[in-house]
């Protein structure tokens, strides 16, 4: 096997563009020419058939075949045979529960971390690539057996990170305050707030921020820091705070 290769995208659709339009060049560069078919995991949305159609259309336009895992009679075997995995966005709780229900957590980890097949996630698919889904924005509409996720990286991500709106009269917590509350709990890992249009490319022990927007990094007990595209986040891959 090779080193882990991950493309963790904040969002599937950017304002003014189509499905995965803002990151399609990143996808082609990431998957390259060796990959012929992508295994799509549509568990985050209820209508899996429609979701698979949308994803298939996009990936075929980029030159890749796409198989949706929900059409397979043996999801575990589908993961074992896959050349690359893409998990799309939707509800993170629904997604993680389905991954547990289908006994896929261990299988995906093994394929990505041991066999080195490319893993791409967007939104909820990015959330489940991390330590846990504690920093998702979604409502817990179903109850997964654990909040522990795939653990392909030793930190958490908050996709669709939103900066406080200075003009807003809304008095609820900002995203930053919610992440700070998470870090009030002991032994909580770093959280990378990925804005719309941002993505993290992980190749082995190297992690780089890509896309058109920046990210905000939250470390427990420290002030958050602001980072531009091109930032080297490799230090986050050193598991200094094991759960």
Automatic annotation (TrEMBL):
Known catalytic reactions: Dipeptidase E catalyzes the hydrolysis of dipeptides Asp-|-Xaa. It does not act on peptides with N-terminal Glu, Asn or Gln, nor does it cleave isoaspartyl peptides
Function: Hydrolyzes dipeptides containing N-terminal aspartate residues.
Top-level division of the source organism's lineage: Eukaryota
Keyword Ribosomal protein found: no
Family the UniProt entry places it in: Belongs to the peptidase S51 family.
Pfam families for this protein: Peptidase_S51
PANTHER family named among the record's database cross-references: ALPHA-ASPARTYL DIPEPTIDASE, PROTEASE S51 ALPHA-ASPARTYL DIPEPTIDASE
Annotated GO biological process: proteolysis
InterPro entries: Class_I_gatase-like, Peptidase_S51
Enzyme nomenclature, EC number: 3.4.13.21
Entry's Gene Ontology cellular component terms: cytoplasm
Molecular function (Gene Ontology), one example: dipeptidase activity
Lineage: Eukaryota, Metazoa, Chordata, Craniata, Vertebrata
Organism: Serilophus lunatus (silver-breasted broadbill)
Gene: Aada
UniProt-annotated location(s): Cytoplasm
Chief site of localization: cytoplasm
Keyword list, A-Z: Cytoplasm, Dipeptidase, Hydrolase, Protease, Serine protease
Protein name (record): dipeptidase E
